[in-house]
Amino acid sequence: MSDAPEVKATSNGISPPNFHLPLPDRPDIITANIQKLTELTPDPRHRFIFKALVKHLHQFVNETSLTTGEWMAAIDFLTRTGQKCTPLRQENILLSDVLGVSALVDALNNPVAGGATENSVLGPFYTEDAADVDFGESIASEGKGDYMYVEGRILTTDGQPIPNAVIETWETDDHGFYDTQYADRSHPDCRGRLRSDDDGKFGYRAVVPVAYPIPGDGPVGELLLLLGRHNMRPNHLHMMVEAPGFHKLVTAFYPDGCDYLRSDCVFGVKKSLVVNLKDVVDDEETRKRGFPQGGSFKLLQYDIVLLTEDQSATIRAGVEERYTITQDHKSNKS
Ligand code: BEZ
Ligand code: FE
Questions:
Q1: Is residue 253 within 8 Å of 273, Cβ to Cβ?
Q2: In terms of domains, do 61 and 106 share one?
Q3: How many domains does the structure of the chain reveal?
Q4: Is there a single domain that holds both residue 99 and residue 208?
Q5: Is the residue at 14 inside a domain?
Q6: Of ligand 1's atoms, which has the minimum distance to the CA of residue 98?
Q7: How far is CA 147 from CA 201, 269, 287, in A?
Q8: Ligand nearest to the CA of 232
């Protein structure tokens, strides 16, 4: 007598469809068959997404005449990408970043109008433990890099100040590392949380960020080498701005002049986010701003314009409508 439990292998409970798929005698029948099955997807949005996914995946395999060896290499790559992930390392997001998918999804989901500030990729280095910083204080401890003062206002699209907006900001030190990349991190550095004042103004001391590589010791690093692409981000300062009733903004500012500005490995740079840092060579002014060594500093000035939630929803609906009309127009033609 066997000790095996008396259980039978069972299906997921879904019955066979009420039609028969033709048994394929040509490769394109395989594509047609899966599309016919995908029609069964109950949720219309899921159905739409998976039909498009299958269409483009199969088209890709056909167009590239993908070999079995190449497909197995891709499976191995994806397996290793997943295995590289830990609570602190997200290699799948990094893959989406270097393929431009993160930037594209962000851009489609955060369309702007009316002079509102554009978004940029969040990246993996935001943390929730930044210290509160008062107007004019520093987000960086002394010696972390060349002095930079950041100032501006948080405004509505019609130029009204938004007081009490919460601004989270983070950047690299002058070695090109975020604080979280140091094994001996004891406290947050080069990051801070501040609020706009009654006139919507904010101001804080920081350091001039430098260009830095995204993690290159995993499958995504290998991929970039295979593609002959560098793994550098141009220097930038991240900012995330939230105020009640306004659409949350995740953005970054990119000082002009960086060698990597026009080939960002994660496609985060937008024209409107490129800034000119002013050189302030004035010892007295430098000390007045709170920089203890005096000398000179760079000045980053930028007014950040937020959309209300309603404005953002209206713009997104408009983009979706235009997109749907384009898709319908295309499917009517085919
Ligand atoms: C960043 O800017 O921090 C970043 C964004 C995407 C991937 C890696 C880093
Ligand atoms: Fe960054």
A1: yes
A2: no
A3: 2
A4: yes
A5: no
A6: 7
A7: 20, 23, 11
A8: 1
With respect to residue 230, please indicate whether it lies within any of the assigned structural domains.
Answer: yes
Q: State pTM to two decimals.
A: 0.88
Q: Whose CA is nearest to atom 2 of ligand 1?
A: 123
Domain contains 154: yes
Q: Which atom of ligand 1 is nearest to the CA of 126?
A: 3
The DSSP call for residue 214 is P
Which protein residues touch ligand 1 with a CB less than 6 Å away? 94, 97, 121, 123-125, 214, 233, 266
In a shared domain, residues 195 and 100: yes
In a shared domain, residues 60 and 125: no
Measure the CA–CA gap between 201 and 211, rounded to whole angstroms. 28
Choose which residue among 104, 121, 269 to substitute to test ligand 1 binding: the one with the highest number of ligand atoms within 8 A of its C-beta.
121
- pLDDT value of position 317: 87
| Residue positions counted in the chain | 334
107 and 60 assigned to the same domain: no
Mean pLDDT over residues 174-185, rounded? Answer: 93
The whole-number pLDDT of residue 332 equals 41
Over 50: is that where the pLDDT of 281 sits?
yes
Structural domain boundaries, residue 46: 27-66
- Structure tokens, 189: 């550095």
Once rounded to an integer, what is the mean pLDDT over residues 282-308?
98
For residue range 24-52, what is the model confidence (pLDDT) as tens digits?
999 999 999 999 999 999 999 999 999 99
Measured in Å, residue 121 CA sits from the centre of ligand 1 at 7
Mutate to test the pocket of ligand 1, among 90, 102, 122, 230 (most ligand atoms within 8 A of CB): 122
Residues 6+ apart with CB under 8 A from 170: 125, 126, 127, 130, 139, 178, 190, 191, 192, 238
Q: What is the distance between the alpha carbons of residues 12 and 119, in angstroms, rounded to a whole number?
A: 42
Give domain status of residue 83, yes or no.
no
Q: Which tens digits make up the pLDDT trace of 48-70?
A: 999 999 999 999 999 999 999 99
322 pLDDT exceeds 90? no
User: For 107, phi and psi rounded to 5 degrees?
Assistant: -65, -40
Please tell me the distance between residue 164's alpha carbon and the centre of ligand 1 in angstroms.
27
